[in-house]
Amino acid sequence: MRKLAQGDRAQEMRFGRFLANRRVTVERLIEGWSDQTGHAVAGRHVLAIQDTSEIKFATTADDRRGLGKVKKGNSYGVLLHAMLAVDADSGTLLGLVAGQVWTRDGTVTTDHAKRRLDDKESVRWPATVDAARPVLAAAATVTVVNDREGEFFAHWCRTPGGKVHLLTRLMNDHAVAKGGTVRRAIADLPPAGTAAIELRERPGRPPRKAQLEIRFGSMLVKRPRNTADRDLPALIPVSVVEVRELDPPHGADPVHWILLTSHTVETLDQAWRIVEWYRRRWTIEQFFRTLKRQGLRIEDSQITTADRLCKMVAIAAKAAAIVMQLVHARDGRQHLPADITFSHDEIELIARLDHKMKGKTDRQKNPHAPRSLAWAAWVIARLGGWHVYETKPPGPITFHNGLKYFRTFFQGWSFKNVLMP
Q: pTM of the entire structure?
C-alpha cells in the first residue's frame, strides 16, 4: 500500500480509509479499468487477451487474512483475471478492458464434471468476454485470445459471433465429427510450410530462433459426452493450426502449439497470421510481471483483510497497465495520442509540466509530438528520476515512480478549480 500511496504516511492513511469504504467495491474499481480503452480501440482489429494470475500473500497458520488457497500447497492469496486490448497489427497495448478479482471461499465438493459452467470458476472466461463487449463495441474486429486453461467447449459455443472471434491453444483433445480427435486429425495433414521465428526470453529459456513447421485445416468438434451443459450444440466448426519446432536445441523444450480459432484459415498466410496473433499473448504475461515484480511488487502488501487486498489488486492492475503503456510508448514509434491513457485534465497538467521541465538545449527538450503518448511518457519518466543524458531508456520502476509523483501533482492541481474563483 505504501507504493500506491506514494510513500507518504498521511496519504497512506487516506488510502487505507479509501479501501475500507464499503461504497468502494471491486466491481466499481474494475469498471474504471476501461475509462480510456473504448476510445482507443475504435476502428481497430483488437486482440482481447485474457488470462488469470494467482497473487500470493504472506499468511500464518493463525492468521490467513481471510484469504483462500491459491497455487499448490499451503499458499493463500487473490486471483486476478484480466483482459487487455492489444492492436492486432502493431502489438500496441490499448488498455485494460474487463476482468475479475476474487479470493476462494472454502473447497468445492461437487465433482467438476457434474457442475454446469455457471457454477465453475471457468465461467470467468466467457463472462469476461460478455463484460468486454460494450467496451470493445467500436472495434472493427475482436479476437479473444486465451491460453489452454480457457479452452473448453462451452466457451466456443458462447463467445464467437458477429465481429467477435476466439483463438486459443488446445487443452482438451476434442473428438471430431469424422472420427478420432483434433490431435490425430491435424497430425494426418501434410505440412504446409516452414518459417523461422524469434522466441522471446522467458524464465528458464533464453531467446532463440526457432524453425517451425505448420499444418492447418478445418474440423467439426463434438460436444463432450460428460458435460453437464446438455443444451450446448452437438457440433461446432473450428479452424486448427499446428506449429512444431524442427531440431530444437539440446535440452530445450520444443515449441508445439495446436491453435483453435473461429477465424477462417484457408491459406498459408492466414495460418501464419493466426500464429502471430497468438504470440502476442506475451503482453499479458508482461502485465502480470509488472504487477508482481517490476515496480509495484503487489505481493509484498501488509494489508490485513481479504476485501481490502482484492480492492488493492484491482487498483494496482490499472497502474500496471499504464506503466506498460508508457514503457511501450517511450521511443515514439507507436504514434499514439496521450488520451488513450490520460484524461483531458491530466493532459493539461502534463503540458504545464513539460513546459516547466524543458531546458535550453535540444537534448533537454521533449522530442516527441505534443499530446502524444510518447510525449507524456517523457514527462512521467522525468518525474520518476530519469535524466535526459542517461543512455538507458526509462523502465517500469521509473515510470511507476513518475506516476506516483504525477498523481500527487494532479491531486493538488485539481484543487484550482475548487479553490480559485
A: 0.90
